[in-house]
Amino acid sequence: MYETKYHRASTVSDAAAMLKNADDGKLLSGGQTLIPTMKQRLAAPSDLIDLRHIDEIAGIMKQADGSIRIGAATCHADVAANEDVKAALPGLADLACTIGDPHVRHMGTIGGSIANNDPAADYPAALLALGATIETNKREFSAEDFFTGMFETALDEDEIVTAVVFPTASNTAYAKFPNPASRYAWQACL
């Protein structure tokens, strides 16, 4: 890997300031895509701004209107195991349970996944189907307006995903074709 400066943000505004002051800064949440990309020398950011320790963007909350707000730094395993998500959005809980393998589910985050917008990722389709709203440090997007193309979103360079809000939709399901070559655990959710 190339030389990179590591920064550990404690608030969203702290992270935004670090990102603004970096020559070519990248946000690090779970790192499930960024770190392997850096190891392969396909990316060489000047600065990594770690979002994993920002309490304000972690966790899952059922809101007064019944919607579910999931902080961007919430890992897939927490989405899969959360009782409010299972009750209000069973398809989303099932989706989170089938992402990658246990390591990926415990490190990868919903915010990192949607900000990367990999066409092979599971969350973008769910956000679109469920009519989710993406919150950032600057504004809110409907899922339709957020995803603009493969690996592309409507995020500005200094914008940080902070949460995703899902309206309740208890009659949901998620299915995908397993890829045996990937060796990912298909239904082993821990």
Architecture overview:
This protein is an alpha+beta fold. The protein contains nine helices and ten strands. The longest helix has 10 residues. It is globular, with a radius of gyration of 16 Å. Helices cover 32% and strands 19% of the residues. The mean pLDDT is 90. The protein has a single domain, classed as Uridine Diphospho-n-acetylenolpyruvylglucosamine Reductase, domain 3 (2-Layer Sandwich), CATH 3.30.465. The strands form three sheets. The chain has a five-stranded antiparallel β-sheet with strand order 4-5-10-6-7. A three-stranded parallel β-sheet has the order 1-3-2, with helices on one face.
Rounded mean pLDDT is 90
In helices, the fraction of residues equals: 25-40%
The major β-sheet equals:
5 strands, antiparallel
What order do the strands of the largest sheet run in, or round the barrel if closed?
A: 4-5-10-6-7
General shape: globular
The CATH class name reads Alpha Beta
Q: Give the strand tally.
A: 10
How many helices in DSSP terms?
A: 9
Q: Tell me the distance between the termini.
A: 32 Å
Tell me briefly what this model is:
The relative contact order is 0.17. It is built from 9 helices and 10 strands. The chain has a single domain, classed as Uridine Diphospho-n-acetylenolpyruvylglucosamine Reductase, domain 3, CATH 3.30.465.
Please give the structural blueprint.
Layout: E1 5-8, H1 12-21, E2 25-28, H2 34-39, E3 47-50, E4 60-62, E5 68-71, H3 76-81, H4 83-88, H5 90-97, H6 102-107, H7 110-116, H8 123-130, E6 133-136, E7 140-142, H9 143-146, E8 147-149, E9 152-153, E10 161-166
Parallel strand pairs: 1-3, 2-3
Antiparallel strand pairs: 4-5, 5-10, 6-7, 6-10, 8-9
